[in-house]
Design brief:
Layout: E1 2-6, H1 14-28, E2 32-39, E3 49-52, E4 55-62, E5 65-66, E6 73-74, H2 77-96, E7 102-106, H3 110-123, E8 129-132, H4 136-139, H5 145-161, E9 164-167, H6 170-179, E10 184-186, H7 201-210, E11 217-222, H8 232-245, E12 249-254, H9 260-269, E13 276-280, H10 284-291, E14 296-299, H11 305-309, H12 313-320, E15 325-328, H13 333-336, E16 343-346, H14 351-362, H15 365-378, H16 384-392
Length: about 400
């Protein structure tokens, strides 16, 4: 079967990683898969069409922001208008050049939504599917109310018009139900266990020494430094308490994002500059090596719609390298952590509770090892190869049951 995915992000970004890994799994099943995507830095992209792991990747336009380094570059109003118009036309052309039995939108947003309506529904007269990996009206940073209204309209309309919907959390499945989605399958995020793994012990030891981490207990965060979606400031506040009682503890922040300078300033103001290490943007392969250095990792959350809608990649990736996770008891995080066997759940939005859990886990090496082993075992059910088969069930007349939740409708 020919399958075309339309996504408004690059496959190098965390959301894009979901779609590439799903596409990779579908290709392994024998499907012909093409992925139409927007590039984070199109002007410096030297290869806009290529095949990776059996997946055709076509970059058809520029993302809404240029993401070439550790801090994204925002476009001005007129430049942004040109970028959005060019990306939309590129997505429409790509869809018209991609005959397929299945068209599946990743993230219900205006750019790929217009392409679905114009190229797929009106011209090709084909139905389309939609995937939700976020509540787009809550997770994006808007500068005006009308922008939020536009995204809300497209999210509602596309979920209602789609012949089937995939989501990565039960929370988003319920949102799709309220929008009138016809069929829903919950497909959580996952990890490519054949690729995302800890390096050999001697490589980890050398990396630890090169970063000055030898003899230090390491708390890690791996993800985007964007406070709209990821309250890393909550972790910094909690770590200030941990640092006071654990003089050998160090916080390793892996990744870049628009609020990197804000967090660096917050660290300086708290007098933690020598206790917090910022890596900036790194490759996904480097993330695995760095995360494996940690004694534990943290997924800081507040009790809000953004966190309830998320299936955090960082949780699966931590478990894959045997690192226990501390996070908020929110959404389906308890299920993701095997009901506490692979990590610790605390009150969301409470830096004192977060600090207490981090400190206790740092002081209990046997418990960390047990949780790490439990995580390695539990995460096998979230291998992208398995999740791709679940994803493909939405194309069948009788979808298969989703991991942990089943089909909502």
């Amino acid at each position: 079967m020919r399958i075309t995915l339309l996504i408004p992000v690059g496959i190098e970004r965390p959301s894009g990683r979901r779609y590439f890994q799903i596409a990779r799994g579908l290709a392994a099943q024998g499907h012909r898969v093409r992925l139409l995507a927007l590039h984070p830095d199109l002007r410096n992209c030297t290869c806009r069409r290529y095949t990776a792991d059996g997946v055709e990747v076509w970059y058809v336009g520029q993302m809404h922001a240029r993401k070439a380094g550790s801090v994204p570059e925002r476009f001005g109003p007129l430049a942004l208008l040109r970028v959005l118009a060019g990306a939309t036309m590129g997505m429409i052309r790509g869809a018209l050049q991609s005959p397929a039995e299945v068209y599946h939108l990743g993230k219900p947003q205006p750019i790929n939504g217009l392409a679905a309506l114009v190229a797929v529904a009106l011209i090709r007269r084909r139905p389309f599917f939609v995937d939700c990996d976020d509540d787009e009206t809550q997770s994006n940073r808007f500068t005006a109310a009308w922008q939020r209204a536009v995204f809300a309209f497209w999210q509602y309309a596309l979920l209602r018009l789609a012949v089937g919907v995939t989501t990565n959390t039960p929370h988003l499945a319920r949102l799709a139900q309220r929008a009138g989605a016809r069929r829903i399958v919950v497909v959580p995020n996952g990890v490519a266990l054949d690729r995302f793994r800890a390096p050999p012990a001697h490589v980890s030891a050398a990396l630890r020494a090169s970063l000055g981490l030898t003899g230090r207990r390491v708390v890690a965060y791996a993800g985007t430094l964007a406070l709209q979606n990821h309250p890393v400031d909550l972790l910094v506040e909690a770590f200030a308490s941990v640092a006071a009682t654990h003089p050998d503890a160090l916080l390793l922040l892996i990744g870049g994002g628009e609020d990197l300078p804000v967090l660096q300033e917050a660290v300086r103001q708290r007098g933690l500059a020598d206790r917090v290490y910022f890596t900036g943007h790194v490759t996904h392969q480097a993330t695995a090596a760095l995360l494996a250095l940690a004694d534990l990792s943290v997924d800081p959350v507040r009790d809000d719609p953004v966190a309830r809608a998320r299936s955090p990649l960082k949780i699966f990736e931590s478990m894959a390298v045997g690192v226990p996770v501390v996070t908020g008891a929110l959404g389906d995080r308890a299920d993701l952590l095997a009901n506490g066997a692979a990590g610790v759940l605390v009150r969301p939005g409470d830096p004192a509770a977060l600090a207490e859990a981090i400190g206790q886990l740092l002081d209990d090496a046997p418990r960390r090892r047990a949780m790490g082993e439990a995580g390695r075992a539990h995460v096998r059910r979230y291998d992208w190869a398995l999740l791709a088969r679940l994803w493909a069930s939405i194309y069948q007349s009788e979808p298969a049951a989703a991991v942990g939740e089943g089909v909502e409708r």
